[in-house]
Amino acid sequence: MPLNADYILSREFAPVESVVTDRDVMFYALSIGLGRDPMDPWDLRYVFEKDLKVFPTMPIVIGHPGNWMTDPETGITRTMVVHGAQRLTTLRDLPVGATVITTNRVTGIWDKGDKGAVMDLVRETIDKATGALIARSESSVFCRADGGFGGPQGESHVFEPVPDRAADRSVEMPTDPNMALIYRLNNDRNPLHAEPAFAAKAGFPRPILHGLATYGVAAVAVAKTFPERAITSFEARFSKPVLPGETIAVDLWDEDGAVAFRARVGDKVVLDRGRAILS
């Protein structure tokens, strides 16, 4: 069955209410590699309840709409779906212990022919008590087997390339072999990240790390490099998968009012066209 763009675009998602607990905050931080050195006072702020801080990319794991892509009416080949790109704008910290409301919607589907289809999704999280917008997340999902359905061929956002010069600095970020098994408990239980047989069907030698885990690791690299500043916007395209246990090198370029970045494993670029806005 071909991808059913009309069905997907008309789909309505019920708002998701969540209470963000201190356990949730600490677990997310641990899942992206914070706390590897339990004596590091900078890391400890995110993984210990005393004076606990919320890491700024955490809104991407709040308000997940569920495993709706398994609905056969969508026509999506679930084994061939990977994350394509992610943009996050964080306006304020998630309130620990308070209720937040998250909405999800599919805003566009792009036909890339033999390469597949790209689906754009928007997620917004607000504070239930005040109605204030906390964060807006814009994701692109690459459905690698579902192109040729007759849809438009464009794209919704152009990601700027990193500068054509040597990076100003590079930060090495190790990952643990079980990182995907931990990260998937952030409401993303896609078996691609846990089940060897499923990963093999998708063409991978073993379960791969979530793109959003790699994204989080890159955000930690930026935050550690600029510890006195806060990330308010973070975006990147996912270019190659990371295998849990590999070391991610995050190359950084100082730009006017921003930090451009690219992440790689050896010579393999895994995140590209990255840009962080810091306040």
From TrEMBL:
Residues 160-264 form the MaoC-like domain. Residues 20-144 form the Peroxisomal multifunctional enzyme type 2-like N-terminal domain. Pfam families: MaoC_dehydratas, MFE-2_hydrat-2_N. GO terms for molecular function: (3S)-3-hydroxyacyl-CoA dehydrogenase (NAD+) activity; 17-beta-hydroxysteroid dehydrogenase (NAD+) activity; enoyl-CoA hydratase activity. CDD domains: HDE_HSD. InterPro entries: HotDog_dom_sf, MaoC-like_dom, MFE-2_N. GO terms for biological process: fatty acid beta-oxidation. This is 3-alpha,7-alpha, 12-alpha-trihydroxy-5-beta-cholest-24-enoyl-CoA hydratase.
